Amino acid sequence: MPDLPVEPASGGRYPADMETRVALLEQIAQTNAGTFARVERQMEAMAAENRAALRSLSEQQRADFRWLLGIMLVGFGLMLGSFGATLGVMAHGFHWL
Known about the structure:
Blueprint: H1 18-93
């Protein structure tokens, strides 16, 4: 759309089509407001889904950590037991006891 001079062409305060332009801009602003509200609702819904997913992931990580800690403790206990059994067999074989 070519630029139009701001000076009135017909002796009025604004050019004749200025009211039409303002009305069109107001309509665009209303449409944009509705669009922005819809986008904001979608963003809030996505944020809620992300919070739920993170909560679930945190619970899963906590369960995995407990399982791995249990495995490590059992392994450490078996290692100490094996070491003690080996020392017992050595003590018996060398007649230390």
